[in-house]
Amino acid sequence: MKTKLVLLLCLAIASALPVFADNLLTDPGFNIVGPSGSSTSLSGINHGTNSAAANWGQWNNDATLTTTALVNTPSPTGDNTVLQITTNGGDSGVYQLFAPGNQTGEVASVWVYVLSGQVGIGFVNTNGTYALSPTTDSVGQWVLLNASGAGNSGEFVIYSFGGAASFYIDNASIQAVPEPGSLLTFGSGLLGLAGLVRRKFSA
């Protein structure tokens, strides 16, 4: 009976850990002031600069004005420092480059509070294309957006969708989906542990 319980526990752990725990993003909580100060502005199309949060850039894909600012407001994480983004155009906001490493994909998440407009998240592929999915236009509430990448990225974006928008963001995360070989090694280790426990109970 104890052996079966150990095996079930090992299988439960293996199924609950399909993703490595390390966050690939730097300053995911938007707590560190960037080199351009706690507020920034950017005008023009296909143009970028530093955002108000360290290690996050801001970019305009539209001929527009985009501002970022670190502000104090309650968030779901209990951290009251969030990044506010306001833009007059679509597909404009903030991004961060990350090292994808050896993986078959990525999973991303970020808390978003829409003040106006619509917001989406996505991964930029090596050919420069991206799709904003999912999106939210739920004004006045925090929404957790989750997205999956194919492993050929290295850039995460949080942009306005379809036009002007103003929104807060907090607690962004990107985690690597390990290669099948890594999962196989992990699973073999769990089975080996189960075997050791079984021998111990049988002794």
Question: Any descriptors?
Answer:
203 residues, 2 domains, six-stranded antiparallel sheet, single chain, disordered C terminus, alpha+beta, 40% strand
The structural domain count equals 2
Given the structure, what is the number of helices? 2
> What value does the Rg take, in angstroms?
21 Å
* Class computed from helices, strands and strand pairing: alpha+beta
Molecular structure report:
With 203 residues, the chain is an alpha+beta fold. It folds into 2 domains: 1-18 and 179-203; 19-177, Galactose-binding domain-like (Jelly Rolls), CATH 2.60.120. It has helices spanning 2-16, 180-202, and strands at 39-44, 47-50, 57-60, 64-72, 81-87, 92-97, 105-116, 119-123, 135-136, 142-149, 155-160, 165-177. The strands form 2 sheets. The protein has a 6-stranded antiparallel sheet, with no helix packed on it. Strand 4 (64-72) and strand 5 (81-87) form a beta hairpin. It is globular.
Question: Can you summarize this structure?
Answer:
With 203 residues, the chain is α+β, with helices and mostly antiparallel strands. It has two helices and twelve strands, in the order αββββββββββββα.
